What we know:
- By secondary structure, the chain is an alpha+beta fold.
- The protein has four helices and eleven strands, in the order E-E-H-E-E-E-H-E-E-E-H-E-E-H-E.
- Strands 2, 3, 4, 5, 6 and 11 form a six-stranded antiparallel β-sheet that branches. Strands 1-7-8 form a three-stranded antiparallel β-sheet, with no helix packed on it. The protein has a two-stranded antiparallel sheet with strand order 9-10.
- The chain starts with a strand and ends in a 7-residue tail after the last strand.
Amino acid sequence: MTETPNPHIPDADTMTGGMRPIRQAVIAVGSNLGERLNNVQGAVAALADTPEVTVVSVSSVYETVPVGAPAGSRDFLNAAVLIDTTLTVHTLLDRCLAIEDAFGRERGEKNAPRTLDVDLIVVGDRVAHDDRLTLPHPRAHERAFVLMPWLELDLEGEIPGKGYVVDLAQGLDTSGVTRREDLEILV
């Protein structure tokens, strides 16, 4: 089920024709397997190469302790990407999954090390829950490795139904999240 908060506003995900409204979306990218920085950089480049997507800004790189991962898992490199898009949420999801596949992402054990995560966090104020997609991301509000990079990009960021990113981040343990001043993602 997808829904817009205001029933009087056309549903951008079911509109037909070539014109769709531009919506801002937040995408979290991360890697803890292989050439982590190259993987994150590649994800941002692939998003920038996507038709109907404009990369607005990219956060700094953060190194984060993996959450719920098997013992011995390497730390993640994470970043947040702010985009403008006219894609439907499912088309954007398909693109994110295709980018993960292009970087050798293997889907198996939950929280296993991975070459690349490309997660849709929010797409405008869209709320969706179906067999393929839940928006906003169901655990984003409890993940410092998502909120800290996002906060760097948008001090007024909000997760529909959860609250403002600045308030949510203040309630989280950020001790395992370190901004890496020595690493940079090019757009």
